[in-house]
Amino acid sequence: xxxxxxxxxxxxxxxxxxxxxxxxxxxxxxxxxxxxxxxxxxxxxxxxxxxxxxxxxxxxxxxxxxxxxxxxxxxxxxxxxxxxxxxxxxxxxxxxxxxxxxxxxxxxxxxxxxxxxxxxxxxxxxxxxxxxxxxxxxxxxxxxxxxxxxxxxxxxxxxxxxxxxxxxxxxxxxxxxxxxxxxxxxxxxxxxxxxxxxx
Amino acid sequence: xxxxxxxxxxxxxxxxxxxxxxxxxxxxxxxxxxxxxxxxxxxxxxxxxxxxxxxxxxxxxxxxxxxxxxxxxxxxxxxxxxxxxxxxxxxxxxxxxxxxxxxxxxxxxxxxxxxxxxxxxxxxxxxxxxxxxxxxxxxxxxxxxxxxxxxxxxxxxxxxxxxxxxxxxxxxxxxxxxxxxxxxxxxxxxxxxxxxxxx
Lengths: 199, 199
Description:
2 copies of one chain form a homodimer.
Chain A: H1 8-22, E1 38-43, H2 50-54, E2 61-66, H3 73-84, E3 90-96, H4 106-115, E4 121-122, E5 127-128, H5 150-162, E6 173-178, E7 185-187, H6 189-194
Parallel strand pairs in A: 1-2, 1-3, 3-6
Antiparallel strand pairs in A: 4-5, 6-7
C-alpha cells in the first residue's frame, strides 16, 4: 500500500522522530514513575520548553500543560494521579509573561467563535475576524480561563490546588512566572507561601 | 531578607534554570503564535519529551499535556484557543505504550483515595495502600479518563476533537502512539482517517 500524502509539517515531525529513534539508546529502560519525583503545571505556549527551562531529562518529571497553565479540574486530575499513583511529592505551577490568555476575555473569544471558526487576525495585542460566517455560539458556554493579572493567577491556581480535597497536605506547591524575554522563572512568593505544606 | 530553605528538587530546578538563562540569547525575540503552526496533545508521562520526539524548538508549536493525553474539555479548550487565536492548522494526538492510565480504573483510584491520600505502592502493574486512614470519597465523583485499549483511546480522542462544534473542519488531526521502548511514534491509521479534514 502506498504511503498517504502528508503535509509538510507532518513529514517534518516524522523525520525528526526518526532522528530521535536513532539516538534513543538506553532510554528504553526508563521506569514509569518519575525518577525525580515532581511535576510541573505550565502553559502550552510554544516559546516554553519545560524540559529545557527546568532541566528535565526523559524520565525525570511529569509535565502538564494547557492554555495558561491553569489549575483546571483536568490539571488537578493529572496532579492527583501524579502523586497518588506515581509518587510525585512536589509541584510547580509556572505561568509566563506575555501570555495569550491575558489578551482576551470570555466575551471576546465567544464573539469571535460565534462569528466563524477560522483563525482570527492578531496584531500582537487584539484579534479581529477578517471573514464572517459559519460560526458557533457554543464558545459562550465555555469558561476559557483567561488571565487578568499574572501574579494573581499563579496565586489563585496554587491556592486552588492547595485547597483541593484530594491533594495531600504535605506536598509543597511552588508558584513561578517564566519570563519569555530572559528564560528565567521568577518566584511568586505569595503563591509559594500559599502553597506551602500544611502538615 | 534571607532566602527561604528549599528542597533539593526545588534548588536543582532553579540551578538548571540559571544555566538555561545563560544561553537563552535570541529566543527573547520569539513571537507568541507558534512559528510552525501546529499543536501536539500528549501525555504528561515523564518519559515523553515532545520537543525531542517531534523535533520542536522553542517557538515552534503548542504542546498540551495531561494524564493520558486525553481529549478532555480542557484539552479542547486549549486546542480551540491554539487555532482560533494563535493560528495552528494541524494537530497531533499522541498517546503512548505502557501508559499508567491503562493500569487502573475509576473504581480502583476512587477506592485508593477514599482510603488515604498518600502515594500508593506500585509493583509495576497494580497499586496498593501500605497505610490506611484520612482519605476522601471525592475521587469516586471524578472521571479519571483511564484507558482500556490504547489504539481505541487514540481513535476516540481524535473523533471527539473532530466532532467538536468549535473545531474547524479543515484542521487535520493525526493519531499516534509513542513507543516508550524505541522513542518512535507509530501512526494509528484509523485515528488519522477519523481525523482527516472534512472540508
